[in-house]
């Protein structure tokens, strides 16, 4: 049975660690690939030698070189990649970012915790996302 594949596109090492911690709680096997910006992610997705078509993409909006919205526009215009499930992860609660991402057909929007030293004031939305949404997606993919 093929293990589900996740592509994490994130430029912040602390956020990568946070996602990895949350994913470990999923209780299911998966393969995680990481890219640090949209340009790197496109190279990985378009590399025919790798043949990577992830089950889910977790995408940060604010990144250098190519941000999440620019990346989304690129994959939505690519006939091999346009139907990928993409979840936006961001600290931004800007309505414009959300509206633009929704226009580009995202599967969901996750607000990252803003304060890593005191998460007690706000629940970790990544943990909630992994436990309630990503687990279902990955398990459904394997049925």
What would your notes on this structure say?
One of its GO terms (biological process) is phosphorelay signal transduction system. This is Response regulatory domain-containing protein. Pfam families: Response_reg (PF00072). The modification 4-aspartylphosphate is found at residue 60. With 143 residues, the chain is of the alpha/beta class. The chain is built from 5 helices and 5 strands, in the order E-H-E-H-E-H-E-H-E-H. The chain has helices at residues 13-24, 38-46, 68-76, 95-103, 125-141, and strands at 5-9, 31-35, 56-60, 86-90, 108-111. Strands 2-1-3-4-5 form a 5-stranded parallel β-sheet, with helices on both faces. Strand 4 (86-90), helix 4 (95-103) and strand 5 form a beta-alpha-beta unit. Helix 1 (13-24) packs across helix 5 (125-141). The radius of gyration is 14 Å and the shape is globular. The protein starts with a strand and ends with a helix.
Characteristics:
single chain; Rossmann fold; 5 helices
Order of helices and strands: EHEHEHEHEH
Briefly note the structural class of the backbone: alpha/beta
CATH-derived architecture: 3-Layer(aba) Sandwich
Strand content: 15-25%
Mean pLDDT rating: 80
Q: What's the name of the CATH homologous superfamily?
A: Response regulator
What's the shape?
Answer: globular
Largest sheet: 5 strands, parallel
From the N-terminal CA to the C-terminal CA, the straight-line distance is 10 Å
Quaternary state of the chains = single chain
